[in-house]
Amino acid sequence: MSALITDLYQLTMLQGYFREGLTGEAVFEFTVSRLPENWGFLVSCGLDILLDYLEGLRFTPEEIGWLAKTGLFHDDFLEWLSEFRFEGDVYAIPEGEVFFPYEPVVQVVAPLPQAQLIETRLINIMHYSILVATKAVRCVLAARGKTLVEFGLRRAHGAEAGLWAARASYIAGFAGTSNVEAGYRYGIPIYGTMAHSYVMAHPDEASAFLGFARSQKTPVILLIDTYDPLRGAELVTELVPRLKGEGIDVRGVRLDSGDLAGLSVEVRRILDRAGLKELSIFASGDLDEYRIEELLSAGAPIDGFGVGTRLVTAADSPYLICGYKLYEYEGKPKRKASPGKSTWPGRKQVYRFHGGGHISRDLLALWEETVEGGKALLRPVMRRGKRTMPREEFSQIRARLERSLAGLSDDIKEIKPKGSYEVRISKGLRELSAELEGKWR
Question: Less crowded by CB within 10 Å, the N or C end of the chain?
């Protein structure tokens, strides 16, 4: 990841810090300040990608040379920049943990220039990962145990977004992805069927189905809605016995368009009538949690869903209101007081309380406050620019998410929540905020 993937003002501020000698210890925190409509929680995701970025953050000689040609920077600053390394500490809510507005997901404690430079890329990584992971979890909850596969690469806003979406959705509980590079890079299971173009390249559907099935090493799912989905289903019932005789396993059929609820009922009836109850029905086509919930509530006999466009673009809420702000410098608390964008001052910790078999509430408190009975969510993950623990396996993160979701009440997990989660503000934090507010008047 190039160090130049940043906003210009990060570098102009760094030049100012450098020339003014502002290198004291700073505390920055990344928070989301508001939930999207109909969302009851958020899911921490992207931390591992962020830590990789921080450990490898360097300016290459070529990048320093290009910066010199812009005419924007002094030579002594560029020389200092050429030796730049991130050597700060990072605390974070672990991946797979649910969290809520105003709670710091990532906290950076580092010399001011180091903490400042990483702002743009940190938001870029964490924002998108959290956004897609949370939407994917909502799809998982709506699917009621049905198989989900991430299909979004072709509509993702770039290859990197496609990779991060595959990773986030797998953490969320998807079975896998169609993204081959995500399989190679992250070890995520990969899935794929066939496209309409494959069918159309053959003289008829029968030859397409036979050719595809015979060419694969593993069981296949046949796409039956290129022309007439019901006729396609009938054709599958005719060809499956023939293919079985050749030792070829057809796993199921896929519907990608039309009235998925009605068609799935008719296709299920056709397959069952032919004694093919074991064949599954897989559906795709502009699906999201709302559409999945609608289909299953209507009784659609669909066994799995491919979710792409509306997931990787988070179509109903394509961005989060979030920020990475300075909360402490040289031991002194800082607070942004802009109307509508005010922040809670000082370095903070999040404490979670349980009761009645559920997560009952969170408390946002000052780092130095003593809090009894709550579990601290922010954990040390990096010390002096190096990870403090081994890279987590996906199985660990997925298990954490499962536990975290199990602790939430059902009314918060619903696609359209009937309740909201309580995040309290500690007495010490309120008093500090009032004190600083008084100084600005």
Answer: C
pLDDT for 187-198, tens place per residue?
999 999 999 999
Give percent helix, percent strand, percent coil of the chain, each to the nearest 5: 40, 20, 35
Half-sphere CA count of 177, side-chain side, radius 13 A: 28
Alpha helices, H only, 144-228:
159-172, 180-186, 196-200, 205-215
Averaged pLDDT score across all residues of the chain: 96
Rounded Cα gap, residues 234 and 193, in angstroms: 19
Residue with tokens 């975290």: 404
CATH number at residue 234: 3.20.20.70
Tell me, yes or no, whether 328 and 435 share the same domain.
Answer: yes
Residue 142 neighbours by CB under 8 Å, 6+ apart: 289, 290, 292, 293, 296, 415
Question: Does the predicted model carry a pTM greater than 0.90?
Answer: yes
| Burial class for 47, CB neighbours closer than 10 Å (0-12, 13-18, 19+) | buried
Place 441 in a pLDDT band, splitting at 50, 70 and 90.
very low
